[in-house]
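DM from R.C. (forwarded with permission)

"hey, sorry to bug you on a friday — could you get me a structure for this? deadline for the figure draft is monday and I only need the backbone to look sensible"
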Amino acid sequence: MSDVKPVRLESGRLQLRSAVKGDAELLFAGYFGSVESSRFLSRKPYTSVEQTNAFLKKWTQEAWHTPGVPFAWVIAKLESLEPVGIFLVFPKGDVVEIHYGISENHRGQGFASVTACAE
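My reply, with the result:
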């Protein structure tokens, strides 16, 4: 398995990318700070945008430079670049485990399905 982590991937309607300015506020409001979104997670909802910023920096920037560690992409709409969720990758030997979270106002639109496979 390669330890190369692409900086950006695109499909017909989505982009997987590193975090950019403004992502933390939108992702905090729709996902990271949401009680409903945290219901099935091992973490409680974040209480600040700063926590979301720290997560994004660690998982979508710093982790990309360390082989074999879990990392993440921001899931964004291709046409507007609006962040709609997070896509996490956990390397485990020759396989990977994936997790994703979609902001409440973007659920039910097929974003998780498109993220996990080719569109």
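R.C.: lifesaver. Residues 25 and 49 are 6 Å apart (CA to CA).
me: no worries. The chain has a mean pLDDT of 87.
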